[in-house]
Structure formats: C-alpha cells, structure tokens
C-alpha cells in the first residue's frame, strides 16, 4: 500500500470511528440532545423508530424501481442536494410527526442519491443490486451515542453484522426478480431482516434529529441546517466506506483490514 493510500485509509478510519454524536457539526448541544432523547416518551421513541424503518423501505423501493425501469441514475449538482434538504428542513421540520416523517423521507432520499454518486466515483457499479444494498447500509454508520452503548460500533464489526443480511437480500431479489421483490419488500424476510438491522442504528439519527428540532437550538442553527449536518455526515461515511472498498478491490479485504486495525489513532 502506497503512502498516499495509507493516508486515505487513516483518514477513512478516523471519520468512521471518531464521530461521537452524529450531530458532530453541532456537538456543543450534545448534552441537550442526549437529555431530550432520554425524556422523550417511549411511545414517541417507538414511533420515530417506525418512521425510520418506513423511510428506509421507501428509499430502497425507489432505488429498485429505478433499476427495474432501467432508468439512468442522473447526478444532480451537490448544491441541489444541499439546497433541497435545507428547504425541506425549513418547511417541514417543525410540524410534528407529520412534518418530521416527510422531511426525514425527503432528506434520506437526497442523502441516498449523494451516497450513490460517491460510490460511483469510487468505481462501484451502482446499477447492481449488491451496490444498491451496500449504499443503503451507509445509514447504519451513524456513530455512537448513549442510545447504542450496547451495540458493537466498530466499522468492521458493523460490516460483518450486515454481511449475511445483504447476501440474503441480494439472493432473494435475484431469485425472485426485481418486480416481485419491489412488490413484496415489506413481507420479504431477508429484506426486512436487513432493514431492521440498519434501522437499529439509523433510528439514532432519526431520534437525534427529532430531538434537535424540538429544543431551543432551532433559533441558532435552524432545522434546515440540521439537515445539512446529516447530509455532510453521511457523505463523509460514504466517502470513507467506499474508499476502503476501493482499496479492498486492489489489495484484498483481509490485507486492508489488517492495515486498518494496525492504525493507531492520534
């Protein structure tokens, strides 16, 4: 591995495993976010989790429909992503669960488009089912908080935990065809297992977003800015993940994993 590649790997590891709150761009309100999440009624937390799961299902369906109709994946300018999620946050961020659900869905779809662009820039074929599923798992790379203290949060542990579910989902789609898979997403055991695994971590993102939009920081940074923070976060996760995947294609997964684990964080 060249010195430049080692530098890229070091940066990727730093981005993936030193996040703290997902809202790292506004971590000065971290204690307030944690406190607000803890005081959210269990029914509200459960509802946010359900919304997050439904959002992931809808994003997956949108992508598979695009593949099914053989439509090209168009690449909007980065400014369009950011302008769109900012507008969504401003327009929908303070309307309770209805506005929150619509905002989270739109913002997640835009983040997924950006993730696909990043994957493509790193040499991935985004027209394959495997890459589509791989892109979806970026939403499991949400960093750590008190909400997921019981989860294994290291990058390779998360990948390993998702690998079987990705393979099973890919096999299901291949064996049943895209059309059938699209129609039966919510009743497919392999696909729902993958979605559930991702939701376990993505719900932390959703809870932090919901909590942040409900406390006084709104006057300082605005709901639209919160969406930008999430966009930047998952772009960074995608950049790191697909940089590692690119190195793995060149050197093999075990070799890259060995170098990754040998890196001592400064």
List the helices and strands and how they pair.
Elements lengths: L2 H15 L12 H10 L2 H27 L9 H15 L3 H26 L7 H8 L18 H22 L1 H6 L5 H24 L5 H34 L1 H10 L4
Helices and strands, in order, run as HHHHHHHHHHH
Number of strands: 0
- How many DSSP H or I helices? 11
Distance between the termini: 20 Å
Query: What oligomeric assembly is this protein in?
Result: single chain
* Shape descriptor: globular
Average pLDDT reading: 79
Could you estimate the helical fraction of the residues in percent?
over 70%
Number of domains: 1
* Rg over C-alpha atoms, rounded to the nearest angstrom: 18 Å
Q: Which spans have pLDDT < 50 for at least 5 consecutive residues?
A: 145-151
Helix vs. strand class: mainly alpha
> Which percent band covers the strand fraction?
under 5%
Biggest sheet record: none
Keywords: Membrane, Transmembrane, Transmembrane helix
Organism: Flavobacterium jumunjinense
Protein name: EcsC family protein
Report on the structure:
- The protein has 266 residues and is an all-alpha fold.
- It has one domain.
- The protein contains eleven helices and no strands.
- α3 crosses α9.
- The radius of gyration is 18 Å and the shape is globular.
Short structural summary:
This protein has eleven helices and no strands.
Features:
266 residues, 0% strand, transmembrane helix, EcsC
């Amino acid at each position: 591995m060249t010195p430049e590649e080692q530098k890229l790997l070091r940066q990727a590891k730093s981005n993936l495993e030193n996040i703290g709150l997902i809202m790292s761009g506004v971590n000065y309100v971290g204690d307030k976010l944690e406190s607000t999440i803890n005081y959210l009624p269990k029914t509200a937390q459960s509802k946010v989790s359900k919304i997050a799961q439904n959002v992931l299902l809808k994003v997956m369906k949108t992508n598979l429909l695009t593949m099914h109709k053989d439509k090209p994946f168009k690449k909007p300018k980065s400014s369009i992503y950011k302008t769109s999620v900012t507008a969504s946050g401003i327009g929908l961020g303070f309307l309770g669960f209805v506005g929150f659900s619509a905002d989270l869905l739109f913002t997640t779809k835009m983040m997924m488009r950006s993730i696909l662009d990043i994957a493509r820039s790193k040499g991935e074929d985004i027209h394959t089912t495997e890459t589509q599923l791989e892109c979806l798992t970026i939403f499991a790379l949400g960093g750590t908080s008190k909400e997921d203290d019981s989860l294994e949060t290291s990058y390779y542990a998360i990948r390993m935990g998702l690998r079987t579910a990705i393979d099973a989902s890919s096999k299901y789609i291949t064996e049943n065809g895209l059309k059938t898979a699209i129609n039966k997403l919510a009743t497919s055991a392999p696909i729902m297992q993958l979605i559930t695994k991702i939701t376990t971590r993505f719900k932390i993102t959703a809870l932090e977003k919901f909590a942040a939009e409900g406390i006084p920081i709104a006057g300082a940074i605005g709901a639209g800015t919160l969406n930008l923070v999430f966009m930047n976060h998952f772009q960074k996760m995608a950049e790191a993940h697909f940089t590692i995947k690119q190195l793995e294609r060149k050197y093999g997964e075990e070799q890259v994993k060995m170098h990754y684990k040998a890196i001592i964080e400064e």
